[in-house]
Amino acid sequence: MHHIASFAVVACLSAAHCLAATPPAASYPDKAVRLLVLSPPGGGSDITARAIAQKLTDQWRQNVIVDNRAGAGGVIGMEITARAPADGYTMTLGSIGPVAVAPSLYSKPPYNPVRDFTPLARTASALNLLVVHPSVPAHTVKEFIAYAKTPAAKLNYGSSGAGRADHLAGVIFSRAAGVTMQHIPYKGGAPAMVDLLAGNIQIIFATVSTALTHVKTGKIRPLGMTSAKRSEYFPEIPTIAESGLPGFAVDNWYGIVGPAGIPPALANRIHRDIGAALAQNDVKERLVALGIVVFPTATTEEFGRYIKSEFERYAAVVKEAGITAE
C-alpha cells in the first residue's frame, strides 16, 4: 500500500510539473485579442489587418478585434502597444514608418523599435505608385522631373504622415532628382487621396490599394513604382529606378509587433498562426488584387533583424534630410 501511495504522489507531482512547464502558448488565447492599426479604415494596412484578423479569429475561436489608432504618424498606437502587458493580447500591425522610422524624428524618441517591442511577423509589402493629378503636365517620371525643375512648378505632395513610407519616398525622390516639393502630411493615405483628387495637392507616392480605382477611372495618372521591381499587377508601369533614378527603392512593408517581453514560445505560436493566415489563397488573392504582396518572415528573429536594419538605414536618411516630427 505504501508503495502504491508513493507512486500516486510521484505521478501527481510529475503531472503538476508537466502542467507548470506547459508554455503559455498552449492555452492562448482565452479571451479577445486586440490588433491595432495605425491608420484610418480603408487603407492598405487596415485591409491587411482585417484579412489576418478574420483568419486568426477562425483559428483561435476568439475574436481578434481591429482597433484603428491613426494620428501622430502612428506613434500613438505604437506607444499603446509598448505599454501593454506582454501577454499576446495586444499587438500592432505597423509599417515601415511607425515601426522603423518614427523614433528618429524626435529629439527624445517615444520608443526604441528594437528594445521596446517583440517582433512577431513581417506580413506583406504594399506596392507604392508615384501618382499625379491630371493637371500636372507629365506622363513619365523623366517628364515630371523636367517639369518640377521649371519656375512654373509649385508642387505639393501628400503623405499618410511624417516618416511614413510615402513621405520617405518623396524625400528620397526629391533629393535624387534635384527637385523641390512641399510635403503635406495627412492622417492616412485615404484623406491624402481625397485632396489629390480635388487638385489641392499634385502628387502622392500612394499605395496601389488607395490609388487603384482612381487610376482605372483616369482621375489620377501613374508615373512609376517605388519598388525595386515592376509589379505583376501593373507590369506596364516602370519603376522609378528604371525611369532615370537608378537605385531608387522604398519598400512599404507591414509587420506585426507586440510589447517587449512576450515569452518566445508564445511569440513563435503567434508567428506560426499569422503565417498560416497569410498562406491561405483567399487572403493572398485579396491582397495581391490591391497591390499588396504577402511577404512573411521565416522566423521572429529574422523580422527583428530586418526592423533593426531598416531603423538604422532610415535614421541616416532622416538625419541627412533634417526631417522632424516636432
Remind me, CATH topology of the largest domain?
D-Maltodextrin-Binding Protein, domain 2
CATH homologous superfamily annotation of the largest domain:
Bordetella uptake gene, domain 1
Please report the total strand number as a whole number. 11
Give the name of the CATH architecture of the largest domain.
3-Layer(aba) Sandwich
Q: Hey, roughly how much beta strand do the residues contain?
A: 15-25%
Report on the structure:
The chain is α/β, with parallel strands linked by helices and 326 residues long. The protein folds into two domains: 30-125 and 252-321, D-Maltodextrin-Binding Protein, domain 2 (3-Layer(aba) Sandwich); 128-243, D-Maltodextrin-Binding Protein, domain 2. The protein has eleven helices and eleven strands. The strands form two sheets. Strands 2-1-3-10-4-11 form a six-stranded mixed sheet. Strands 7-6-8-5-9 form a five-stranded mixed sheet. β1 (33-37), α2 and β2 form a beta-alpha-beta unit. α2 packs across α9. The longest helix has 22 residues, at 300-321.
In terms of topology, how is this protein built?
Elements: H1 2-21, E1 33-37, H2 44-60, E2 64-68, H3 75-83, E3 90-95, H4 96-101, E4 117-126, E5 128-132, H5 141-148, E6 156-159, H6 165-177, E7 182-185, H7 189-197, E8 203-207, H8 208-216, E9 221-225, E10 252-259, H9 264-278, H10 281-288, E11 292-294, H11 300-321
Parallel strand pairs: 1-2, 1-3, 6-7, 6-8
Antiparallel strand pairs: 3-10, 4-10, 4-11, 5-8, 5-9
Helix pairs in contact: 2-9
